[in-house]
Specification:
single chain, 285 residues, 2 domains
Length: 285
């Protein structure tokens, strides 16, 4: 009985429901998020033989190795509460990855469907936040010059910037590799363009760095896999186009660029750059 349980692959639709509910609860319910995270970790534990199958074991062991490395870092942390929070966050991340392997196996179509569902949630939040920004554009532009940020509904702007980067990179990868077919292709392309635009309006510099760093890393991986420089060329061209269009068309992006240049000029002048940044934020209030 136990052996059957541990080799069992969780139905994909169960994983989709739990993941979608947990992801959406990022904006409204820490309790639901915790329950969903627990269930995903439970799925990973109960399906460990499927997770560590031959075709997936290298990835699974790599994730476990990352987790063990972080545990070592926890013992070096001064603040135990912060270390525990980070540990739990990483545990959920590892559990999500392993549960994903257990649930889907080779069912890539359902996995793509889940990603499109999660991307739609991010798109909705993007549209709400951008609409609010456009309705109060002059006010927020003034604050952006003082190192403030455009508010995101029920989420820290840096975290949401990284989520935006993750969705943009995921959609771009699926479209480039032609994993989205038929009408979903146009849906994915439309979502990619809208979220990419919103990302450049809303995201912090951290989110934008995550986005472009991801593009560069993904391009290099594709160059290695395909033995061709075409992905690197397309990735570089995409970055140039996105940055150029964003700088010309987005006031918020220009403000972030101006702040970055100001910070850069402050280096090496005997000034504490963090004090300067905090002073600008205080002025923004």
């Amino acid at each position: 009985m136990l052996d059957k349980l541990t080799t069992y692959r969780v139905p994909a639709f169960v994983f989709i429901i739990i993941s979608a509910l947990g992801f959406s609860s990022l904006w409204y319910s820490p309790a639901i998020l915790s329950i969903s995270s627990f269930l995903l970790i439970l799925i990973a534990i109960l399906s460990y033989k499927a997770t560590f199958s031959r075709e997936l074991n290298s990835i699974a062991y790599s994730l476990i190795f990352i987790f063990l490395l972080y545990i070592l870092d926890v013992f070096r942390s001064v603040d135990a509460s912060i270390a525990l929070d980070k540990l739990l966050l990483l545990l959920v991340f590892i559990g999500l990855q392993l549960a994903c392997f257990a649930a889907f196996g080779k069912l890539k179509t359902q996995l793509i469907l889940l990603f499109l569902i999660l991307s739609t949630m991010v798109l909705v939040v993007d549209l709400v936040a951008v609409t609010n920004y456009l309705m109060h554009k002059e006010y927020y532009n003034a604050l952006l010059l003082q190192s403030k940020h455009i508010p995101i509904p029920n989420m820290h702007h840096i975290h949401f910037g990284i989520l935006n980067a993750w969705v943009v990179l995921g959609l771009a990868g699926l479209l480039y590799l032609k994993k989205i077919q038929n009408n979903k292709h146009y849906l994915g392309l439309g979502m990619l363009l809208v979220i990419a635009i919103c990302c450049h309006i809303l995201s912090s510099r951290t989110g934008l760095i995550a986005l472009y760093s991801g593009f560069i890393v993904a391009s290099l991986v594709l160059v290695y896999q395909k033995k061709s420089l075409k992905p690197l060329f397309l990735g570089t061209l995409s970055i140039i186009i996105f940055v150029s269009v964003a700088y010309v068309s987005s006031t918020s992006f220009r403000s972030k660029t101006a702040n970055s240049l100001e910070d850069f000029r402050s280096w090496g002048n005997g000034k504490e750059i963090n004090y300067k940044s905090m002073a600008m934020r205080f002025e923004g209030y």
